[in-house]
Amino acid sequence: MYEKSFPKKRFKHTLDFLKKHVDTSQSILDLGVKNPLSEIMVAKGFRVENTSGEDLDEDRTAIENSSADVITAFEIFEHLLSPYEVLKSINAKKLVISVPLKLWFAPAYRSKTDLRDRHYHEFEDWQLDWLLEKTGWKIIDSDKWTNPVNKIGIRPILRRFTNRYYIVYAERS
């Protein structure tokens, strides 16, 4: 059942998927600054450290120096110019990553006011799978879900049955 404590449907799906694959005793480095989802993860008993807002395309020091058991990256990779390099720099053996899927009926997201808040990549599921496999990750599990909005129009109708988010659990030996 959907918990009222979750501000967004994707948080519920993400947390359920995370609980399925990651034990609360494992340490997590969450790529991206502290955010509502990482705070929910902590409230649910996960040990989470976030990166500091550095440009991960340019500075992967936090990832390379991390001793975390698991790396999480929730809606981060679409903002990177080179997610390949970030994935290659991970030392952890477990990865949970989610991305918004490319929608055929909507252009890639681009904020007009924040130059950093843009999607350089909007993946199809096979593209993320290929990227993970090419960087040495073995996909163990994945899931997709829709993101309906309470608006009127063609796009809101399409969002009711078109998957918007894709999440993957992968391991590397």
CATH class division: Alpha Beta
Instruction: Specify Rg, calculated over alpha carbons.
Output: 16 Å
User: What name does the CATH topology carry?
Assistant: Rossmann fold
Based on Cα principal axes, name the global outline: globular
Number of strands: 6
Name the CATH homologous superfamily: Vaccinia Virus protein VP39
Task: Summarize the amount of helix as a percent range.
Answer: 25-40%
**CATH architectural label:** 3-Layer(aba) Sandwich
Largest sheet: 6 strands, mixed
Mean pLDDT: 87
Note poorly predicted spans.
none
Please give the order of strands in the largest beta sheet: 2-1-3-4-6-5
Number of helices: 6
Count of distinct structural domains: 1
Question: What is the beta-strand fraction?
Answer: 15-25%
Structural class by helix and strand composition: alpha/beta
Q: From N to C, what is the helix and strand string?
A: HEHEHEHEHEHE
The CA-CA distance between the termini, in Å, is: 35 Å
Concise summary:
The chain has 173 residues and is α/β, with parallel strands linked by helices.
List the helices and strands and how they pair.
Layout: H1 9-21, E1 27-30, H2 36-43, E2 47-50, H3 61-64, E3 70-74, H4 83-88, E4 94-100, H5 125-134, E5 138-146, H6 154-159, E6 163-171
Parallel strand pairs: 1-2, 1-3, 3-4
Antiparallel strand pairs: 4-6, 5-6
